Write a sequence for this structure.
């Protein structure tokens, strides 16, 4: 545990570690980022996430800027986790349709054509 001017923190030293001891980010690249962004932009409720500057905290910590993404109203669900969940569901359905997720949009997923191909699927959150 560390301590920085009264703020206590714990660093997760084992997150996404490889055999070399370094964090692995091989699962993500610019192509994947673009697919994720485009998939979410196809949702009618999509809006760019606002950033808020934490000026007083950045002064206290001696850094030039600290910005926080405000995900509190993401898709009307008050949570940022919906992005990962919706993309995971989109990938699952793309796989079932034997297409790349870049070929799917929210509107296409709602189409009769897709409904006929997929049949009924149910997704639930255990929270």
């Amino acid at each position: 545990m560390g301590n920085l001017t009264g703020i206590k923190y714990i660093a997760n030293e084992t997150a996404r570690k490889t055999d070399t001891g370094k964090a692995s980010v091989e699962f993500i690249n610019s192509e994947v980022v673009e697919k994720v962004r485009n998939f979410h932009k196809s949702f009618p409720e999509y809006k760019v996430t606002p950033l808020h500057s934490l000026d007083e905290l950045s002064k206290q910590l001696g850094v030039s800027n600290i910005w926080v993404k405000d995900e509190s109203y993401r898709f009307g669900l008050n949570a940022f986790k919906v992005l990962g969940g919706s993309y995971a569901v989109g990938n699952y359905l793309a796989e079932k349709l034997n297409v790349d997720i870049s070929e799917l949009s929210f509107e296409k997923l709602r189409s009769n054509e897709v409904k006929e191909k997929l049949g009924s699927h149910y997704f639930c959150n255990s929270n």
